[in-house]
Design goal:
six-stranded antiparallel β-sheet; Rossmann fold; elongated
Length: 322
């Protein structure tokens, strides 16, 4: 691009960081919008978002509105006369007055193969559902949730061992390339947006705290996928006696043992490597590889069992024992 385009960038989490870095190498970042600092940790110490921290280091103007209900906040954006507004995992809805304000477009970098997994948690939901692939998209923003036409897209395979952290990193690194391609195409008036199909629409709803407790009556493959999907955050938990235990990693286990009246969540054996084997739904079994007692560090099963007693017949539950 001969003349640097004027960009307002909006993002909040670590996922957005590579996009801001790359776009700033080619364009003029005139303002950065991110969510306000939040209280974090036991002392509720105020914590800046990853985008806020990066923007400060790069000496960009940073704005942190709670929302866009204040007309003065909206007008401040409109008056900047940006060429583009680029949004990557910002977390706030934009009114039509902002969406219409750039010279060219408001573009959203979304982490799914739209129209599949519109919404808040597309990376986790894709893994949880057992999808074989996903995508990063540059989409024209509309007032409705993730419904806009797609300008550029790159498909990304999901392996059987993929977890939310590894997929997050891949997609985070690919996103700025897709966005820059879209910016170039649009600014050169050489783009052909593709409307999203009305078929295959799914919603990646926000992860609730209730979902983090493992339901051992689910089939082993469903539990294993959820463990990978929630691996980084918020995690998956179970209860043993009076202890809350986080299960980090597990694998499908083809047990020779037959169901002889086992309860779901019951330890039926220990594998050759010393890992607990759990009876799960539909007469399936799961080998627990990594776990963590609340307040302690994550450990492999062998190390964990040196300091915590688990026996055949013990049952992992979805609540504390009375």
């Amino acid at each position: 691009m001969k003349n640097k385009l004027r960009i307002i960038f909006m993002g909040t989490p670590e996922f957005s960081v590579p996009s801001l870095k790359e776009i700033s190498n080619h364009c003029d970042i005139i303002s950065v919008y991110t969510q306000p600092p939040r209280g974090s940790g036991r002392g509720l110490k105020t914590k800046l978002s990853p985008i806020h921290i990066l923007a400060r280091k790069m000496n960009f103007l940073v704005k942190t509105p709670d929302d866009f209900s204040d007309l003065n906040v909206v007008n401040e954006i409109v008056k900047l006369n940006a060429d583009f507004i680029i949004v990557v995992a910002y977390g706030l809805l934009l009114p039509s007055s902002i969406l219409k304000s750039p010279k060219f477009l408001c573009l959203n970098g979304h982490a799914s193969d739209l129209p599949r997994w519109r919404g808040a948690a597309p990376i986790q939901r894709a893994i949880e559902a057992g999808d074989k692939s996903t995508a990063v998209c540059a989409m024209i923003m509309e007032e409705t949730l993730d419904t806009g036409p797609i300008i550029t897209k790159k498909n990304i395979p999901i392996s059987n061992s993929e977890n939310s952290q590894t997929l997050h990193e891949k997609m985070s690194e690919e996103m700025p390339l897709i966005l820059m391609e879209a910016i170039e195409l649009v600014s050169n008036k050489n783009y052909f947006p593709k409307m999203q199909s009305e078929q295959g629409v799914t919603y990646a709803k926000k992860i609730s705290s209730a979902e983090t407790t493992i339901n051992w009556s689910d089939e082993n493959i469903s539990i294993e996928r959820k463990l990978r999907a929630f691996s980084t955050w918020p995690g998956c938990w179970t209860f043993h006696k009076r202890n809350r235990i986080r299960i980090h990693n597990a694998s499908i286990y083809d047990a020779i043992t037959k169901n002889i009246g086992f309860s779901h969540g019951q330890i039926v054996d220990f594998s050759v490597s010393g890992c607990p084997v759990i009876f799960t739904g539909n007469d399936t079994f799961l080998e627990i590889l990594e776990l963590q007692k609340e307040g302690r560090k994550k450990m492999g099963s062998e190390e964990f069992l040196r300091g915590y007693k688990l026996e055949v017949g013990d049952i992992f539950k979805n609540h504390f024992d009375d």
